[in-house]
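Example A, followed by Example B.
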Amino acid sequence: MSERNPRLDPESAILHEEDKRTSQYVHGRSEREAERLSDQAMTLADLLHHDTRYPAGSRVLEAGCGVGAQTIILSKNSPDACFTSIDISPQSLARALAYADREGITNVCFRQADVYDIPQDLDRFDHAFNCFLLEHVPDPHKALLAIRERLTNGGSITVIEGDHGSAFFHPDSIEARKAIDSLVEIQRRMGGNALIGRELYHLLYDAGFNKIRISPRMVYVDVTKPALVEGFTRNTFTAMVEGVRDQAIGLGLIDEATWEKGIRDLERTTEYDGSFCYTFFKGVAVKGS
């Protein structure tokens, strides 16, 4: 996609070399990871987004849009709102822009920006949205403060995060849990927090937001839900864990035999007598009283 596309803000059209933090996304920025994120977003669209709609003319900031997986859903659900979607990674933004073009999305402007330092030349926003952002930034409090500063008084924020500690499955497996724990530890060492979902209330409170409402969104999967077996257990969660195999083994967090059995056991939960569940947390809050 040409970098002169009018929906990629000209201030960020020169895609400079990514800084250190852009390389700290634990899952990497491969084409396969972009596909996984899109699969995940579409699989979970109803669960996570059915109650997120923005009025016509609303100015909405999406912080940490990544490859645009959530952007497409948001913009289609609120076609008359105006979105500004920012991300620190030019590589991800290029994919997001291409994705939006393929889907015929016209109500989104993409801009390269750091969530800690949102450009002051942008107008204030009526609403803000971020999904799976806070788990990857070293300072979630600072990120929320920066977003809050860009909201109008009375503006809302919607935050969605997962929590890998909420993964429960049958048959249970020590090896599968060790594989998941390896991912959690790798993300911790990279400055993130894969258990952040349970912290949303205090994070929003500490950042000065009011009227905070947190709702758990549980995914439960068994063979009676084949779309979730493929879309979530296999292509979202297990694929996410599999993606850190080399790091986990290389760091000595787990040995190869335990890792391979752990992945097999996660796959085993998709069989006729298996089940898998995981909880996301969605927080909505307001700036001002």
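Example B, a separate protein, is given below in the same form.
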Amino acid sequence: MCKLNDQLLEGKTALVTGGGGLLGQVFCESLANSGAQVIVADIDGAAAEKVAHAVNTKYAGKAISIQCDVSDPKSVGAMVKDIEATETQVDVLINNAATKTNNLDDFFEPFETFTLKTWQEVNAINLDGMFLVAQAIGNHMIKNETRGSIVQISSIYGVNAPDKRIYEGSEYNGRPINTPAVYSVSKAGVIALSNYLAAYWGDKGLRINTISPGGVFSGQNTEFVDRYSERIPMRRMGNADELTGALLLLASDKSSYMTGQNIVIDGGLSVW
């Protein structure tokens, strides 16, 4: 686990949306390892509870779970009310929740036949959800006069267009894959939202930054891994725990004069 200091976030509370997912669970453990109390939020309440249990097994009393649909204003509002009811003050928001929808056939449909319905479903989580949670937790921080940190998770494909050649013969869980336009557009929107909020809330003591990961290995087939790695100066895909150094830096007071920045962690893909 990449870490700056074991107790870098001692005394702080961090909320992680999408905390039950691939990146989210790694983020939760890293934050707890650095001393933070962690609120694991996910639309899948069971997944959130599982991650919180795993964190508590390793770092006793460091995590609680909460079910939240970030695309639903009422659900987001209920999450904040539940947090405030325990007199908890959120110091750090890791705005991480994202989706490929429940229908991967629709998600991986070519652009020419991609439906507006699927476009809207993805943006409802990837972008609208970012807005709703940032708004609600930002207001919570301002009300509590917290000098808070909001870290929003984008993607290298919010910065650069995907290279279609990587996906020739590529599969994930036995099905062909690609990166649809809606993913790139939604992730580019995350960066723009972060920049806007950094300027808008700068005088409120809130810092808003973005992390844009490159490809993280999560079970893609050999063809994909080989093709992707050929495009990377470091000649490999990343691992989820290689994002945590930047995460802890942005979450902590070590980056107290840093806002409106997008840290790209892509093994060098974007230099070409």
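On Example B: The chain is about 40% helix and 15% strand.
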